[in-house]
């Protein structure tokens, strides 16, 4: 949970520590820990820090002005890649140059034109033509126009050979709708107890491969590695994004995405200082707060209380925060980040006019505290298993999928179809059993001691799964179990073309063998089968795109 305050962003920690030292005088008696409601700490901390110089420095550090000089430098870096035939890296640089260029400038036109050259090389003629038209509609230098117009003619003539982008496939549809959970099959239910909190239980025997839930994200943010090729609003892969007109951070696949984002949360998000954008989870808490406060998105009124609705902010705000378990320093750090966000929002006239009573003010501080904690424990990393160059695409928050607890021998696994998440059974489940996913730690890959340490540190629980309880050996030390014919298992590596028939053949064979082998657990051959089953589902969800 505290990963985002640790190794990754020492700058945040350093600034918080300076503030903490400056404000320490006020918090000598462990005042933050004594609060009956931990979310009140934002009010307390804010009132002490907003006048401090370090706080003012943080707020002022937006460094996000559009600049033609920066745009020019980045475009020239792009030219270097282009000359070395590294078109994808060149394209990313040109997109960054587009984001940095001042509105309507010739630098913006130059960056679009250069990107159109990459798109032409990549055989993305439709996108190439769009960029050429964008460049021509701006202040594109006359002397360069003939070359661009020639490219336009060539792209027009080759449009029929346009490369198709099939990246994410549509998620499967729920077949037997759960009457109490809007995004789930009727094979599961939510239960609660003290030990596990809310958790998911099977209401019947469930077979390997069955879908349990299909959920759209409530809120997502794009990761740094993918920000120049994935839309910041819908996460779709896009090689010719357009920039936000105010900031250099946000890029979109279409006018619709740009205006939806701006009308909703982005007009505020745009103005936040740099420190809150160092980590995608930080970005998420601001976006989550703004989306949650957007009245047009509220669905609670129509939804009866006993139905779990994925699109309801009411459900998001119920997610785990572990706020009572925070020590003083953690409370201070969370409160500081929330205070920065609060301060920026309150400076915004349009925002203030909507939330101006004392009660609104206090509620906003409490909400920012909660959304920050929720965004640290609950998000799912969207990974690119078959994508061109980067592995991390985004972070997304799901109201229901966040309720699956962890096991180091999980019986379910999730697969991202873009920003949607599909959870499937990857080991057969008996009625009454808890359904679990892995929080990134599995018994075959990491030692018990390591798993326990990380789970305690990040998620504040002691794992009692069968691998932890019985101290199962890790991968190479496991017995092989019953022999399986391996010849039919083609390793579904990223380089392999998607072939539905072949994948289905592998899937069915693996499933049959799984039932012959499951009594040998734990063993290597069972893991091989489960890996291949998961790999087929990954392949189905997201196919490789080459530039
Ligand atoms: C993403 S939430 C999962 C849903 C959570 N149980 C709830 O009530 O909202 C993660 C938190 O669930 C709890 N949790 C997850 N797996 C667990 C397990 N195997 N045993 C006990 N608690 C677990 C921990 O408190 C953890 O921080």
UniProtKB/TrEMBL annotation:
Top-level taxon: Eukaryota
InterPro entries in alphabetical order: SET-MYND_domain_protein (IPR052097), SET_dom (IPR001214), SET_dom_sf (IPR046341), TPR-like_helical_dom_sf (IPR011990), Znf_MYND (IPR002893)
GO annotation terms (biological process): methylation
Keyword Kinase tagged: no
Keywords: Metal-binding, Methyltransferase, S-adenosyl-L-methionine, Transferase, Zinc, Zinc-finger
Domain MYND-type: 231-270
One GO term describing the cellular component: nucleus
Keyword Metal-binding tagged: yes
Domain SET, first and last residues per copy: 179-440
Listed GO MF terms: histone deacetylase binding; N-methyltransferase activity; protein methyltransferase activity; S-adenosylmethionine-dependent methyltransferase activity; zinc ion binding
Matches recorded under PANTHER family: SET AND MYND DOMAIN-CONTAINING PROTEIN 4 (PTHR46165), SET AND MYND DOMAIN-CONTAINING PROTEIN 4-LIKE PROTEIN (PTHR46165:SF6)
Name of the protein this chain belongs to: SET and MYND domain-containing protein 4
Lineage summary: Eukaryota, Metazoa, Ecdysozoa, Arthropoda, Hexapoda
